[in-house]
Amino acid sequence: MSAVPKNRARTVLFASLIGTTIEFFDFYIYATAAVLVFPKLFFPGSDPTAAMLQSFATFAIAFFARPIGSAVFGHYGDRIGRKATLVAALLTMGISTIVIGLLPTYAAIGTMAPLLLALCRFGQGLGLGGEWGGAVLLATENAPPGKRAWYGMFPQLGAPIGFFLSGGTFLLLTQTLSEDQFFAWGWRVPFLASAILVAVGLYVRLKITETPDFQKVLDRGERVKVPVVAVLRDHGGPLVLGTLMALSTFVLFYLMTVFALSWGTTSLGFSRTEFLFMQLGAVVFFGLTIPPSALIADRYGRRAAMIAVTLGIIVFGLTFGQLFVSGHTGTVMLFMIIGLGLMGLTYGPLGTLLAELFPPAVRYTGASLTFNLAGILGASLAPYIATKLATEYGIASVGWYLSGAALLSLVALILTTGKAREHVREKAVAE
After folding, report:
1. Using N-to-C axis directions, what is the helix angle for 272-300 and 329-355, rounded to 10°?
2. Thinking of the domain 9-430, which architecture would CATH place it in?
């Protein structure tokens, strides 16, 4: 049996955290630019509404690219190894983001500009589709007994950190540059600055060795020929249940970010700057609640922790109409803090729970697919559905939508078999 050099805990955790931070930073700066920049610079200016809708369409491309990235990078992650695949995923996301910062605009090259923008957005989706699952496995497959959720929450911290950095960067640019400067070159700065973060991430990831779990798969000759086929054929139940378990997490996040920003700056009368500051403040609570959620999950079980917080999301959805109707800053801020605090509590143990649904030989593919399929179902449609509901039936109906999604997640958690516990026991026996 091959001897595997022991990865240092600090290196592993930093490597998993820096990668997801970069990936989510890149993902979120595009989301912000899709509202502030791309409609004016990359699409015909004759119809601003059409330009905005076209910009949002390029934003949505990434959600449909993510499952493809899961299948592609998952294949190599389960065949070649976690380390090499994570490096490739980071490069895919990083290069796509940097190129966006170099693209000529519609005024320079016409219709080629939005086409190239869409292609780069597809590359971002591919990279993130492969990044998340590998980062979670890098952490959890190096975790000592009893600390899998604690290790697994480090890549999850990349989401609030990436969101905070992206929002903070655009706020800084809009506050320090004139409008002409911002649209001439300032918007490119976050995309080009991603190169620095990517270089740091690559340096750290190239220093780590393969995870012990995957090395055992190699030693035992357990690699499958086509992991995605094996997941669909042999693990369809965990795939469906895992997707539904993560559904409410995605619905909650995109209601608290994209929909809340839109509704708060229109129906509630806040300026974009005011509401972005409020969101950044609430995102701090998103990050702060992730570590305690992991500790609870390690002590009482990932599934039990997720059931408890999912019940909390259902209750929060039922109060949606009472908390998000007033233009009073304190009430809306409380709404944002509760919602994003619940987001941290559900996001912390989610990665570890999804990874434990699948055996090591197909874990990269299985965990990535569940996460990114949930993104399509929960994230890509949430802002549109919520806006339609709020406009036609009132803001309380958006909360019912959230509670309904959480109810589906709760049923999936209850129906989950002992597969996760079996794989944990297999790991313990092997050790």
Report:
1. 40
2. Up-down Bundle (1.20)
Residues 6+ apart with CB under 8 A from 113: 41, 42, 103, 104, 105, 106
Residue ranges covered by each domain of the chain? 9-430
Number of Cβ within a 10 Å radius of residue 223: 15
Cα–Cα distance for residue pair 110/367, rounded to 1 Å: 40
Query: In this structure, what DSSP letter does residue 26 have?
Result: H
Sign of CA dihedral 372, 373, 378, 380: positive
Q: Is the pLDDT of residue 403 over 60?
A: yes
How would DSSP label each residue in 265-304?
A: TTTS---HHHHHHHHHHHHHHHHHHHHHHHHHHHHH-HHH
Backbone angles phi and psi of 41, in degrees to 5? -105, -20
State in Å, rounded, how far the first CA of the chain is from the last one. 13
Helices 112-140, 329-355: axis angle to 10 degrees equals: 60
CB 262, CB 380: distance < 8 Å: no
Split at pLDDT 50, 70, 90, the class of 288 is very high
pLDDT of residue 423 exceeding 70, the answer is no
Q: Find all residues with CB under 8 Å of 8, minimum gap 6, and list them.
A: none
Per-residue pLDDT tens digits for 291-314: 999 999 999 988 999 999 999 999
Q: How far apart are CA 140 and CA 13, in angstroms?
A: 10
How many contiguous H segments (helices) and E segments (strands) does the chain have?
A: 21, 0
